[in-house]
Specification:
Elements: H1 2-26, H2 38-51, E1 57-58, H3 59-67, H4 75-99, E2 105-108, E3 113-116, H5 122-133, H6 143-161, E4 167-170, H7 181-192, E5 195-196, H8 198-202, E6 216-220, E7 230-236, H9 242-245, H10 252-255, E8 256-257, E9 264-268, E10 274-275, E11 280-281, E12 291-294, H11 296-302, H12 312-322
Parallel strand pairs: 7-9, 9-12
Antiparallel strand pairs: 1-3, 2-3, 4-6, 5-8, 6-7, 10-11
Helix pairs in contact: 2-4, 3-4, 5-6, 5-12, 6-11
Length: 323
Amino acid sequence: MILNQTSKKMEMTFESKIRETIQNFENIDRPDYTKSEINNYADFVELTALFVREDVITFGDIQDKFFGENDNENAEKKDNEEAFLNTIFEIIKERVYLYNSYYPFVYQENSKQLELKTNLSFKNKLYLSLLISSKLNIFNKFTTDLTNDFEKISYVVLRNFLPEKAMVKEFGKNSQYQGTAIEKIRQLAVDLNLEIKDYELSCVSERNTQERGLDIVGWLPFADKCGNQIIFLCQCACGKEYESKQHDTRRFKNYIDFYKTNPQHTMFIPYSLINIGKKKFYNSDLIEDGFLIFERKRILEFHNDTSFENSISFKIVDKIIEK
């Protein structure tokens, strides 16, 4: 009986988080992105279609939500607003072609209408999982769950992206290394057959148990055990501050003496960044040189572990649809 009461209490806690998430979304008429973050506005339109799954979302719905009733006397303002919204819906049209069957929405280009698909595949739900993970300000009650799940997603993606002989290990929240930060870094150096920079590592607090900014590490080992090899140092970042996190993995050059080749700094982010027309990233200026980026499309391309259907992220998506 006690177990049932505990389970019920946990379920109520999850339900209350969902209710607050819905309220968070309903309180936003228009997100506070800059116009240069136009791809994030497209995300917000998709979220609207997710939250009101039984209805079609139209150009007019978003116009009313963002700008309220139009002032017919200010034609220039209305034209600017419509041009801005047209750019957003153009990105949505691009995503239909970019994501193809992975895209969880149906878009009617002529009428500019967006709606959630009736029967969602695993990849469709994974897309929605990445979408909500990129909006932690709305899903702030699930921040820990979403970031933890995103690290698991990223691990699977790197595992599938690299050759079969590659080694891939988690170093962050779900670390396969044990102990303090110092102990974890020493264990990693042994795995990589590399030397430690003792003085730099001694500057890390012995009470520090965090990962020091490294979430996942992958490498292609040689049978000769020589430390000269291709190494991927990966950071997973859901929040908008991912720009500032790019320095985290660079820190490891202070601790480990990478032999004759620099590690490949890599970042996993749940945002949709591919700009089809330019064949580059949206917000490209935020990404430092020397980084390999796995954004939403690339993550979907290399993730195939359907056991993730049991994750909290999928549970949140299912509950939002149900509500």
